[in-house]
Amino acid sequence: MKPLIALPLLALLAACDSAPPVTFQDASITLPDDPGELPDLAGRDAVIANCTACHSPSTMLQQPRVPREKWESIVGKMQSLYKAPVDAAAVPQIVDYLVAMQDDAAGDVSTP
Ligand code: HEC
After folding, report:
1. Which of 8, 21, 43, 110 has a CB 3.0–4.6 Å from the CB of 97, allowing a cystine?
2. What string of DSSP letters covers 3-54?
3. In angstroms, rounded to a whole number, what is the distance separating the alpha carbons of residues 40 and 65?
4. In angstroms, rounded to a whole number, what is the distance separating the alpha carbons of residues 58 and 3?
5. Which SUPFAM superfamilies match (predicted)?
6. 36-106: what CATH class?
7. Spatial CA neighbour of 62 closest among 107, 109, 101
8. What pTM value is reported for the model?
9. Cα-to-centroid distance, 18 and ligand 1 (Å)
10. pLDDT per residue rounded down to tens, the chain (112 residues)
11. Cα dist. 24→5, 20, 29, 77, 89 in Å?
C-alpha cells in the first residue's frame, strides 16, 4: 500500500520543481491627483497633526459651508465614532481653523 501513497506525492513534488521561478520587478503607480491643499491659516498645523492621518484635506475642504457648532460636532464624531486620537487641547484651534477655512474659501473673512 505504501508505494501507492508515495507515488502521487512524488508526482506532486516533481510538479513543484517545474514551477516557474518567482521574479520581482520594480513598479510604480501614479496616485490620483488630490488638489486638496489646506489654506495657510492659524491652526493649520493642528488640523494636519490631528485630522489628515485618516483622510485627505479634501474631506474637509469639500464639505458644504456649515456653522461652528456643526464643525464641533463633526470633530466630536471623529473622536467618539471613529476613535480619532485628537488632542483635546487642540480642538478649539481645529474648529477655529475649519470655520476660517470656509470663510476664506467664500472670500468673506469678516463673517463671524
Ligand atoms: C481615526 C481616523 C480619523 C481621524 C484622525 C479623523 N477622521 Fe474624519 N473621518 C473618519 C472616517 C472613518 C470618516 C467617514 C468616512 C469618510 O467620509 O471618509 C470621516 C469623515 C470625515 C468628514 C466627512 C463628513 C462626516 O461628517 O462624516 C469630515 C468633514 C471629517 N472626517 C473631518 C475630520 C476632522 C476635522 C478631523 C480632525 C479633528 C478628522 N476628521 C480626523 C476618520 C477619521
Report:
1. 43
2. HHHHHHHHHHHHHHHTSPPP--------PPP--------TTHHHHHHHHTTT
3. 18
4. 66
5. Cytochrome c
6. mainly alpha
7. 101
8. 0.74
9. 50
10. 566 667 776 666 666 667 788 888 899 988 766 656 899 999 999 999 999 999 889 899 989 999 999 999 999 999 999 999 999 999 999 999 999 999 988 765 444 4
11. 36, 13, 16, 43, 48
Contact 102, 96 (CB under 8 A): no
53 lines ligand 1 (CB under 6 A): yes
In this structure, which residue's CA is closest to atom 27 in ligand 1?
74
**49 Cβ closer than 6 Å to some ligand 1 atom:** no
90 lines ligand 1 (CB under 6 A): no
- For 62, the grid coordinates are 469639500
Q: Domain locations in the chain?
A: 36-106
Residue 75 Cα: closest atom of ligand 1: 38
